[in-house]
Amino acid sequence: MDMPEPPFTEFYGAHFQRIAVQLYAYLGDHAEAQDLAQEAFCRALEQWPRISGYSDPAGWVRRVAWNLATSRLRRLRTAIGFLARQREQHVDGPTPDRVVLVAALAELPAAQRRALVLHHLGQLGVAEIAEQEGVAEGTVRSWLTRGRAKLAARLTVEVWHA
Questions:
Q1: pTM of the full structure
Q2: How far apart are CA 108 and CA 89, in angstroms?
Q3: Residue 92, SS3 per DSSP
Q4: What is the Cα Rg of the chain in Å?
Q5: Rounded to whole angstroms, what are the CA distances from 134 to 39, 120, 130, 150, 157?
Q6: Distance between CA 129 and CA 141 in Å, rounded?
Q7: What is the C-alpha to C-alpha distance for residues 124 and 147, in angstroms, rounded to an integer?
Q8: 70 within 8 A of 62, measured Cβ to Cβ
Q9: pLDDT tens digits, residue range 61-99?
């Protein structure tokens, strides 16, 4: 003899709070526990004609809810591990030579400074810099020559005064 199918709303009202409290104790996050319990009940509702025929439909919902919670914790653990590996690594401050070099570069005209940085640090050729800056290659060579001369004079003075 088949038992009549209990209405889902009665089933939900009778079991939601108990499952949500269990998940809260497991997860430590009340809102997350309620969301996951709600998700489990939504999945049960989609298949209610079949699930209501089980000997323990609440057990099915509880198992789904616990599976969702376990998956959530795994994803959280993975995310925390990833973020921990993304932390900034502290490095020593700049050396006195670097401070002097940066200060000397700052005193150069912008075009010369860009050309020197792109050429020596960015490892771009004269043609690449000329294309990027929209100028002739001769102009870039001029910026590099003048910038190096000013930089050499400035750094030589810094060395003698240090």
A1: 0.51
A2: 32
A3: coil
A4: 34
A5: 58, 19, 6, 23, 34
A6: 10
A7: 16
A8: no
A9: 999 999 999 999 899 888 888 887 887 777 788 888 888
